[in-house]
Design goal:
3 domains, pyruvate-formate lyase- activating enzyme, three-stranded parallel sheet
């Protein structure tokens, strides 16, 4: 893996002389107050503009400002006309378009494809402030506003749609967002390294069409350049019937055996010739490109879709990944290898920018729910090597953990204490995509660069993974010792299978950083489902639970674990959900929140959902097929199993239990899952229809169901 130029070592653009703005401008008036006559770069986002490093437009905007560029923000523009996209004038270099911190479709729709009534990234949580597929709509308007200005798209929405992808909301495979947006470049994953390089090269007069060598970018080509070796993806992972190879060590002694020899056939020594040894030239992987099945092929063949997904995920390690191409009609979508992760020094540079840590003044008097949630939290790292198939973190941020220095993190805690209005002394979270992967990495850089595993912790924790929690324990202790800090909470997702390798860490966490409840995510109880999720078995959960309760008792605290589970994940059967419900009842869990599986673009579980195949293994037409809970009634039933205690779900569950031959679980005893009676009110069946129960003549609050 090549050594990249550090993002803080570029010579600043000439506009650096304007200095640092208190907050990036959103109007011509604010530009004039800064002394600007134009913006070099304009970022368009679907989120309200909050000048905080947890908001993508602020992080990228401040980074580009530090490089000397004048950056303006167009936040949640009225997309029905082009006027809102001209509010800051014409950018000198390019438009940068994102949907915001969330995929716009996930943001706007529930797992049942119903429109949400709110939007956490909008002032006062109002819904409807961003369009469906926001990147496409914003890109179109930018092109209409200024057709000759380069257009660069990014964010999680663009990142996860960089190749042909299954779209749950339209129930079909859609083209790469690069094709549909007509953008010049797509930046995927962690964008800092790529966007800094792109910005400086455009500022020096380089045409965006010639910028084709930057990692973490995708673009469109008409043909493959000379000097590149094209490798068909089916040579790496064949998606069809595979003939078994002849075993060169098998000895057949029959009369027709090729190994049978005759004395007269052995040549004498004079006839023997030395074997010529031909040294194979070492392959230059930097000049190899892997051809994925075309858009047309994956759109018409679910097996090829699953195969393409599998190959893409196998080519995700920056240390050994090759470029990928996928034909869309007469064009090639070209994906350069993933970006090289930021060093600790670079991470500090990004997070030490002069963020005001507040929403733009234009929102004065409004509350932005997402900001309220993270205003007192600190992001300490990026990435996740868990590889959970339903999650997009690994696909977007990568498997290599990128950590900030302890000094940088503690400095941010002090800034929150001193600058953020309303701070009461409690840091709400010290974490990131996960709570406890800080500073963890492969023990060998050579092994890490060669690895092609999808997860470092599944099916077991890799022996080459350093799971030392000591740096994190030290960070916790030093953070809570800062003057004015009363409490440091940890609210990020905890990998309890990692945590149990360090009892000292679990003790530190439980006794000092839990506010009564700790949320963790076993996701399921059944091995059949967990194997499709690439999640650890319940043995790790049981071990963590024992530690959690023991360490809580040591300090006299009454604390509780709140587990999260997913309903209707690919590979799940009705029996799996029944067993989960029985597990929940046995442990006396009555959960209010249930996550129903949503197929998001590029996730491995989405490939399962669309294809009915398991891409965690080699995919062929005859390979393992898995059950997919797609029908609305099945998805409702699976959700009802997790909320077995809700009377509104009892009619659905009784109907299902009878069909499953488990009527023995219907009754009024402790051994039963659901009672045989129904409270007066509403009931529903598997079709989702709601029925009114007639009022009884008496005042009894329950009725026997026949």
């Amino acid at each position: 893996m090549e050594t990249p130029q550090l993002i803080n070592n570029y010579r600043p653009f000439w506009a650096k002389r304007f200095g640092t703005s208190s907050i990036l401008p959103m109007s011509l008036k604010e530009m004039e107050e800064l002394g600007w006559d134009s913006c070099d770069i304009i970022l368009v986002t679907g989120d309200a503009y909050v000048d905080h490093p947890s908001f993508g437009m602020a992080l990228v905007g401040r980074l580009l400002e530090a490089q000397g560029f004048r950056v303006g923000i167009i936040s949640q523009p009225e997309w029905h006309s082009v006027d809102a996209f001209k509010v800051l004038g014409k950018p000198n270099l390019y438009f940068g378009v994102t949907s915001g911190n969330m995929d716009s479709m996930v943001n706007r729709y529930t797992a049942d494809r119903k429109i949400r009534s709110d939007d956490a990234y909008t002032p006062d949580g109002k819904a409807g402030k961003r369009p469906d597929r926001a990147v496409l709509v914003y890109s179109q308007r930018c092109r209409e506003a200024y057709p000759d200005v380069p257009l660069i798209i990014g964010s999680i929405e663009a990142s996860l749609r960089r190749i042909a992808h299954y779209d749950y909301w339209s129930d079909k495979v859609r083209r790469s967002i690069l094709v549909d947006s007509k953008a010049d470049l797509l930046v995927y994953g962690n964008a800092e390294r790529a966007i800094v390089d792109i910005s400086h090269r455009i500022s020096k007069g380089e045409k965006v069409s010639t910028i084709t060598d930057i990692r973490g970018t995708a673009f469109i080509r008409k043909e493959i350049p000379a000097g590149w070796e094209v490798i068909a993806s089916d040579n790496l992972d064949r998606p069809g019937s595979v003939d078994s190879h002849v075993d060169p060590y098998e000895m057949k002694m029959g009369s027709d055996s090729a190994c049978e020899t005759k004395t007269e056939s052995i040549p004498n020594s004079a006839e023997l010739k030395p074997i010529q040894i031909i040294k194979k030239t070492k392959t230059d992987r930097s000049k190899q490109v892997v051809r994925l099945p075309s858009f047309e092929e994956v759109a018409n063949d679910p097996v090829l879709y699953a195969h393409a997904s599998r190959v893409l995920h196998l080519e995700a390690n920056p240390g050994n990944a090759r470029a990928l191409i996928q034909r869309h009609g007469d064009r090639e979508v070209w994906l350069n290898p993933p970006p090289i992760p930021l060093s600790t020094r670079e991470m500090d540079y990004v997070y030490d920018m002069p963020y005001s840590r507040r929403p733009h003044p234009v929102y004065d008097g409004s509350k932005i729910p997402a900001w309220e949630m993270i205003r007192f939290s600190v992001n300490i790292m990026r990435g996740c090597f868990g590889g959970c198939t339903f999650c997009s973190i690994t696909e977007h941020e990568g498997r290599i953990i990128q950590s900030r220095s302890e000094e940088s993190i503690l400095k941010e805690v002090e800034e929150i204490r001193d600058k953020v209005e309303g701070f009461t002394g409690v840091i709400s979270d010290l974490g990131g995509p996960t709570a406890n992967m800080y500073r963890m990495a492969c023990k060998s850089e050579k092994i890490e660069n060669a690895c092609r595993k999808l997860s470092c912790v599944y099916p077991v924790i890799c022996e080459n993974l350093n799971t030392d929690h000591t740096p994190l324990i030290k960070l916790y202790r030093n953070a809570r010792s800062i003057k004015g800090i009363k409490k440091i909470l940890v609210g990020s997702g905890l990998r309890y299978d990692l945590a149990v390798t360090s009892p000292e860490y679990v003790r530190e966490l439980v006794q000092n950083h839990v506010g009564g409840y700790l949320k963790i995510a076993p996701e399921h109880s059944e091995e059949n489902v967990l194997s499709k999720m690439m999640k650890p078995g319940m043995g790790a959960y049981d071990k963590f639970k024992e530690m959690f309760e023991r360490f809580s008792r040591e300090v006299g605290k009454e604390q509780y674990l709140i587990p999260y589970f997913i309903a209707a994940h690919p590979g799940t059967t009705d029996s799996d959900m029944l067993n989960l419900a029985l597990w929940l009842k046995r442990h006396d869990f009555k959960l209010d929140q249930v996550q129903t599986f949503t197929p998001t673009p590029m996730a491995m579980a989405t490939a399962m959902y669309y294809s009915g195949k398991n891409p965690l293994r080699k995919v062929t037409s005859s390979s393992e097929s898995i059950p997919i809970p797609k029908a609305g009634g099945v998805r409702r039933l699976h959700k009802a199993f997790i909320r077995y205690h809700d009377p509104n779900n009892w009619p659905i569950l009784r109907e299902a239990l009878k069909k499953m031959g488990r009527s023995d679980l219907i009754g009024n005893g402790k051994k039963h899952l659901v009672p045989a009676w129904q409270p007066i009110g509403l009931k529903s069946d598997l079709s989702g229809r709601v029925h009114h129960l007639e009022s009884p003549k008496s005042n009894r609050l329950k009725r026997r169901v026949r």
